[in-house]
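Work Package 4 report. The design task specified in the project plan requires that, given a folded chain encoded as structure tokens, an amino acid be chosen for each position. We show below one input record used in the internal validation round.
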């Protein structure tokens, strides 16, 4: 039986295939500073982007079930790949729970472009997803924008492994971004929550190829605003009571790696627990930051 809490003091559960969702969590902390947060990194199963859809759905439902046992009052699916594959079924299973997903920012991308050409950087799984393709077709019909889709195989892994400022990362970004700029993209959608974590490197690579201004679209801020709206509509916003808000991390891989990610990426040092959910896939990779 699905139990939905009405306790305003309950935490919000935020999750991703790994550390990428921290790019969303930082916006949630900025906009909802009084909320208690639980962050789940499913790093033992990262990346989701090259897994079959049923596997991603199973992981999402498993992680959500775990967070539910921790008494969360809302979910943030801080992963484009997981949202495209599984948010519909997650909503079916938890009809009363506020759930916010993350989808590549095609609409803000179409609004930002000056020449109508928008590059979309995302995982292969996201770009192949039916939900993504429907969204793309709707935005094309409404705006006439041209989307250049770039699956970034291996990029989330580089970030997951903590190679944030490495030559390999730069070379990979160059390989994925240069053709989009050559084809005229003046806007790049960061369609995976891992990518805003290397925004500075993306900007550096873009500047190497063009003097023109290129807009980068990250939807983390919009996701946090949507979460605030849903909590308010359900009367679930935490009422400040003088007690500080808390953050706790959970991971299906190494706790040390998630701790390092919190420190490096957010400058924070929350408690972290290792949790096992289901059995690892034979070829899954652990996080090493
Ligand atoms: N952070 C995930 C997303 O937003 C993708 C990383 C992965 O492939 O697991 O799509």
């Amino acid at each position: 039986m699905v139990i939905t809490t009405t306790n305003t003091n309950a935490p919000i559960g935020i999750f991703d295939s790994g550390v990428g969702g921290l790019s969303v969590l930082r916006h949630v902390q900025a906009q909802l500073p009084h909320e208690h947060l639980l962050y789940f990194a499913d790093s033992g199963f990262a990346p989701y982007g090259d897994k079959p859809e049923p596997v991603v759905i199973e992981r999402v439902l498993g992680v959500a079930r775990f967070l539910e046992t921790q008494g969360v009052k809302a979910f943030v699916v801080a992963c484009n790949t997981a949202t495209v594959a599984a948010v519909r079924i997650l909503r079916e299973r938890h009809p009363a729970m506020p759930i916010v997903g993350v989808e590549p920012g095609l609409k803000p991308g179409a609004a930002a472009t000056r020449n109508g050409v928008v590059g979309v950087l995302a995982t292969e799984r996201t770009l192949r997803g039916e939900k993504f393709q429907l969204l793309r077709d709707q935005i094309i019909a409404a705006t006439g924008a041209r989307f250049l889709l770039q699956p970034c195989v291996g990029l989330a892994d580089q970030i997951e492994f903590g190679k944030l400022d490495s030559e390999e990362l730069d070379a990979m970004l160059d390989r994925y971004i240069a053709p989009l700029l050559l084809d005229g993209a003046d806007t790049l959608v960061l369609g995976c929550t891992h990518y805003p974590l290397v925004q500075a490197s993306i900007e550096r690579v873009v500047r190497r190829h063009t003097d023109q201004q290129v807009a980068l679209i990250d939807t983390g801020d919009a996701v946090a605003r949507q979460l605030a709206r849903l909590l308010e509509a359900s009367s679930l916003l935490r009422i400040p009571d003088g007690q500080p808000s808390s953050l706790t991390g959970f991971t299906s891989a190494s706790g040390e790696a998630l701790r390092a990610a919190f420190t490096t990426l957010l400058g924070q040092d929350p408690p972290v627990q290792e949790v096992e959910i289901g059995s690892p896939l034979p070829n899954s990779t652990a996080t090493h930051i």
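Residues 47 and 72 are 25 Å apart (CA to CA). Validation will be extended to a larger panel in the next phase.
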